[in-house]
Amino acid sequence: MSENSTDFKKFLSGISDSIPSDASAEELAELGFMREALAEAVKAFEIDEVPIGCVIVRNGEIISRSHNMRELTNDPTGHAEILAIQHASKLLNSWRLDDCEVYVTLEPCIMCTGALLQARVKRVIFGAFDPKAGATGTLYNLHADERLNHRFPVKSGVLEKESVFLLQEFFKRKRKNSNGTKS
């Protein structure tokens, strides 16, 4: 087991310690699903992908999960959300995911928000805001654009600190490595 794996197992187990004791059943479920999305983000980190993870939930069960795979596949559409949508659609034998909720560790970009709109998702819950590409509240509000034939509600900031930590740690190590030092 790599040092990263050990560190991240501790990281993921520590998330439970930060759950408020007065959280409602819905909040506990959201935290649990976001924790699963963070586990996917850790998988991305471990293969040197930007650590973004996504799970798709239907009727309280995870039906699809993925993490970024752009570098591995040399595919600019290899975002966690796109891959999870593709898997869920195949599983359900339908492009419509209208009874599904999507949990993702980073605010979806324009491309991913477009795919979420096309899939007709029920709701999106994300961790960290994306000041450079966020399309569900930060730079754009595509999810709520009344000119479109579908819209979905968004809940932001769920396990935000943990999501931000993974991203910051990833880019900090990238910068160290690009300066010739080993992480």
Which structural category fits the helices and strands? alpha/beta
The dominant shape is globular
- Total DSSP E strands: 5
Instruction: Estimate the strand proportion.
Output: 15-25%
Measured as a percent range, the helix fraction is 40-55%
Mean pLDDT: 91
Q: In this structure, how is the largest beta sheet organized? A: 5 strands, mixed
Rg from C-alpha positions?
Answer: 16 Å
Order of helices and strands: HHEEHHEHEEH
Q: Note poorly predicted spans.
A: none
Index terms:
single chain, globular, alpha/beta, 183 residues, five-stranded mixed β-sheet, 15% strand
In short:
The chain is an alpha/beta fold. It is built from six helices and five strands; from the N terminus they run H-H-E-E-H-H-E-H-E-E-H.
Report on the architecture of this protein:
- The structure is a single chain.
- This protein has 183 residues and is of the alpha/beta class.
- Helices cover 44% and strands 15% of the residues.
- It has six helices and five strands, in the order ααββααβαββα.
- The protein has a five-stranded mixed β-sheet with strand order 2-1-3-4-5.
- Strand 3 (100-106), helix 5 and strand 4 form a beta-alpha-beta unit.
- The longest helix is centred in the first third of the chain and has 22 residues, at 25-46.
- The protein is globular and about 50 Å long.
